[in-house]
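Hi C.,

You asked whether I'd gotten around to modeling the 159-residue construct. I have! Everything is below, sequence then structure, no commentary in between.
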Amino acid sequence: MYTIDDIDYIRSKLKNNGYKLTRQRFQIINVINKNKKHMSIDEIYSKVKRKNIGLSTVYRNVIILEKVGILKCINISNSNYYEIECTGEHKVHVHAQCTECNKLIDIDESKLFKNWEIIMGKMEQNYNITVDSISMVVSSVCNKCSDSSDTWQDQIINK
């Protein structure tokens, strides 16, 4: 799960911004980390309410955790999802979203894209900007939906 270094990093990130690692903040981080998926506020709340944490507490703390760089918000189809963004090491973050079921999949950009720094450099040069990060959502169809779509098409063709 977490190492001592991870907890220390989270604590210092909060402390440097004037906050403490409270029981509620730790539970929110823990739930997102354990689920290993992007979670909406309602999904986070459904997991932490058993620990006597209210919905407004979840909202307040998610905003704080995002502000200090521990959580990252991804807006997909006008819905916000949160994931752990603790280390801040990645300047590029890529997701694939299934257009059929809305499943959100993390893409390991390090294996796919070797030239991100060149792309960011060209963007900075051509548009006179400083690129802090790139966040991309690729529209796609997941294997599960693709398989069910093939079955549906086969049924029509074979009638």
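If it helps when you're writing up: The helical segments are 4-16, 23-35, 41-48, 55-67, 109-112, 116-127, 143-157.

Thanks,
B.
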